[in-house]
Each structure stands twice: as structure tokens, then as C-alpha cells.
DNA sequence: AAGGTATACAACCGCTTCACG
DNA sequence: TCGTGAAGCGGTTGTATACCT
């Protein structure tokens, strides 16, 4: 027995909103507010709409100060940077772009920005979703979703795939080589030189005002300390659960590489690339582990056992060739 | 001009999270 | 502490329009 539906589906109108419906909803909310109950709202004002539909219409379209129209380059940069760092958490990304809704950003990403940044990765077949889905089915990507691969690709690009000094241009250092953790002197040199900025000058120019490294570095944080393993604080006293405070902390941390309100405890202040190799490998593992497809297929995951598929993904999707 | 295809965006669906009794 | 229902969220679908052949 499933959960009761939120409204009477048979008596609810679906599809595009008419100007009259828009006007009715807008006028009521502007005068009375939502009343804290979206489910009851349509009945109050005589709309044959589901409460959820009213909420969505208001938030995504009717609300004041909603921006419609094209995105600026600055907005592109922010979206790109945050997507690499935190994935498809559109509400958090939208919180950084005043006037933009999560739905708007999600649509913009899926239809335009993703293509702009990634381009077409495979041969002459360029038809959208269906072909992409098919290619995913055909390819043996070992369970990684296209979203994870996209983030992987973007990350690689922004980390400076084209740089002659890049990690990714040194085949000996690619993931197949199982270096012990911490063995990263070459990368340390490289990072000392680049100061962890975007390595490729062309990319740096393309993303002039966006710091890519700190947020993407925090993908690891997302993976291990805060989600997989309770922190000491959590174990001892429980974590802060105030929605606003938590959100702001999370955004601060994602954007600026610090934990909001915790001046004395900056988890990732050491942007010296000392463990760049570990970081890269952990990032790859993080994407894999946090991918819903992977999660659903395997509850217990061991980082070492995941390395071969990642090698394959790295070679096939990022470096652009297949290795037996 | 017509039909097919691609694109953009609005809206829906269902799962998760949260608040409250 | 637990159950319930509303809100929030992200993935997906539907549809109008633009573009191409």
C-alpha cells in the first residue's frame, strides 16, 4: 500500500499554466502569502491545480525578481565551478545566483552549458540523450553514470589537461600506476610552480574569476569525513542542524574552502598540493562512490578494488582511447 | 513548403528530508 | 520516539518552437 497522493489527480489540471491562473496565484500570494500550506492553497483560490504545481509555478516563474533570459559568463563560471565540486545539487548552486532558480540552472546546464564546456566527446554521432544513453549502455563504464563522467571530464579539463606539466600528460603517473599514498614529489613541484591555479592558460582565461581548486578539493570532504565517517564533533555532540546555518556553512566551504564560523579549524587551508596525487585518486574514487548507480549496486566499497574500472574510464573517456 | 530533427524550457513525478503532534 | 504529512529537491518527460534537409 503506497502513500496517499497529495491531491485528487482526477480533478487536477495539468500542463501549461494559463495567464489567468498565473494572475490568480500571483495576486493571492502577493496579498496573503502562501499561508504555509501549499496543499490547501489551490482550494482557497479556486485553482484546479495540485499544491506542488502551484509552489513550483510560484518559485520558478511568478516570484518577484526572477531573472529570465540568457546567463552571463560570470554565472556560467559559477555554475561550472560548483557543478564540478558538488555535482547536481542545483538548489545550492542556485543559492549563489540571485534571481535564478534551481530548475532554470538545471535546464541551462543540461541543454547548453554542458555542451559548451564538454563539447561532443564521441565521433560523428551527435544526437542527444538517446544516443548518449545508448553509448553508455554499450560502453563498459562499470556503472559510472554519465553525470559522474561529465564531472570527471570537466575536472580534468579545468585542472589543465593541456598543460605540458600536467599530471595528465605524464602517462607514468596515470591511475594504473598504484603509487603508495603520499608519493607525489613531481606533482608537488608542479603545484608549487602553478600555485594550484588553473594550469592551462587558455582555461584560466576562460574562467578568469573562478577559483576551481578549492571547491573541487572539497569533493573529498564530501566523500569521507562528513558523510561516510562521523566526525569527532558529531560523535561527541551531534552536528549543527540549523538549516540556514548549515546551508551557509556548506556554501562557504564549497566556495571558499573553509568551514563557516570555524575560524580555528580550516580543514583544507593547506593548498600546497602536498598530496596532490592522493587527492586526484581520491577524487576519482569519490565520484565513483558517490554516484548513485554505483551506490545502488554495491553497499560495501573498497577503494583499491575500484581502481581498474577507473583506469578504464580514465583512458576511454578522458584520454580518448581504449586500452585492452 | 513540408516533414523530420534538435533545442529550450516548463512542468511533472517520486523520493528524501524536515517539522510537528 | 515514532508516525504522518508537507516541503524540498533532482531526475525525467512533454511540448512548443527553431532549424535543417
Molecular structure report:
With 324 residues, the protein is an all-alpha fold. Among the domains are: 9-62, Homeodomain-like (Arc Repressor Mutant, subunit A), CATH 1.10.10.60; 74-210 and 297-318, no CATH class. It is 54% helix and 0% strand. The protein has helices at 19-32, 41-45, 51-62, 73-86, 90-95, 102-118, 129-138, 146-158, 185-194, 201-206, 213-228, 232-237, 243-256, 276-290, 292-297, 307-318. Helix 4 crosses helix 8 and helix 11 (213-228) packs across helix 13. Residues 120-143, 161-247, 254-281 and 286-324 have low confidence and may be disordered. Residues 128-140 have a biased composition (Basic and acidic residues). Residues 118-127 have a biased composition (Basic residues). Residues 9-62, 63-117 form the HTH myb-type domain.
Write the element-wise H/E pattern from the N-terminal end onward.
Answer: HHHHHHHHHHHHHHHH
Provide the residue-averaged pLDDT.
55
Q: Indicate the radius of gyration in whole angstroms.
A: 23 Å
Shape: elongated
Could you tell me the strand content as a percent range?
Answer: under 5%
Query: Which structural class matches the secondary elements?
Result: mainly alpha
The helical percent reads: 40-55%
Report the strand count.
0
Give the N-terminus to C-terminus distance in angstroms. Answer: 49 Å
Unreliable segments of 5+ consecutive residues: 120-143, 161-247, 254-281, 286-324
Number of helices: 16
Assembly type of the shown chains? single chain
Largest sheet: none
Amino acid at each position: 500500500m503506497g502513500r496517499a497522493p497529495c491531491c485528487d489527480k482526477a480533478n487536477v489540471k495539468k500542463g501549461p499554466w494559463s495567464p489567468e491562473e498565473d494572475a490568480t496565484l500571483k495576486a493571492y500570494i502577493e496579498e496573503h502569502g502562501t499561508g504555509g500550506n501549499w496543499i490547501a492553497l489551490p482550494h482557497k483560490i479556486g485553482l484546479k491545480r495540485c499544491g506542488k504545481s502551484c509552489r513550483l509555478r510560484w518559485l520558478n516563474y511568478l516570484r518577484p525578481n526572477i531573472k529570465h533570459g540568457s546567463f552571463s559568463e560570470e554565472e556560467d563560471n559559477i555554475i561550472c565551478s560548483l557543478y564540478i565540486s558538488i555535482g547536481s545539487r542545483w538548489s545550492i548552486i542556485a543559492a549563489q545566483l540571485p534571481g535564478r532558480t534551481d530548475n532554470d540552472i538545471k535546464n541551462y546546464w543540461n541543454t547548453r552549458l554542458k555542451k559548451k564546456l564538454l563539447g561532443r566527446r564521441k565521433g560523428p554521432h551527435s544526437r542527444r540523450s538517446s544516443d548518449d544513453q545508448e553509448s553508455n549502455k554499450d560502453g563498459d563504464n562499470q556503472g559510472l553514470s554519465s553525470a559522474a563522467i561529465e564531472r570527471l571530464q570537466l575536472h580534468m579539463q579545468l585542472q589543465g589537461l593541456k598543460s605540458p606539466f600536467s599530471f595528465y600528460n605524464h602517462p607514468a603517473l596515470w591511475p594504473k600506476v598504484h603509487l603508495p599514498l603520499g608519493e607525489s614529489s613531481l606533482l608537488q613541484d608542479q603545484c608549487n610552480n602553478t600555485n594550484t591555479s588553473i594550469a592551462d592558460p587558455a582555461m584560466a582565461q576562460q574562467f578568469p574569476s573562478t577559483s576551481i581548486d578549492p571547491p573541487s578539493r572539497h569533493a573529498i570532504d564530501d566523500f569521507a569525513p562528513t558523510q561516510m565517517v562521523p566526525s569527532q564533533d558529531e560523535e561527541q555532540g551531534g552536528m549543527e542542524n540549523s538549516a540556514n546555518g548549515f546551508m551557509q556553512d556548506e556554501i562557504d566551504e564549497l566556495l571558499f574552502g573553509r568551514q563557516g564560523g570555524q575560524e580555528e579549524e580550516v580543514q583544507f587551508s593547506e593548498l600546497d598540493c602536498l598530496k596532490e596525487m592522493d587527492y586526484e585518486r581520491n577524487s576519482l574514487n569519490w565520484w565513483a562512490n558517490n554516484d548513485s548507480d554505483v551506490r545502488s549496486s554495491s553497499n560495501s566499497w573498497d577503494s583499491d578494488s575500484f581502481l581498474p574500472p577507473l583506469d578504464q574510464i580514465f583512458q576511454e573517456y578522458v584520454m580518448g582511447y581504449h586500452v585492452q
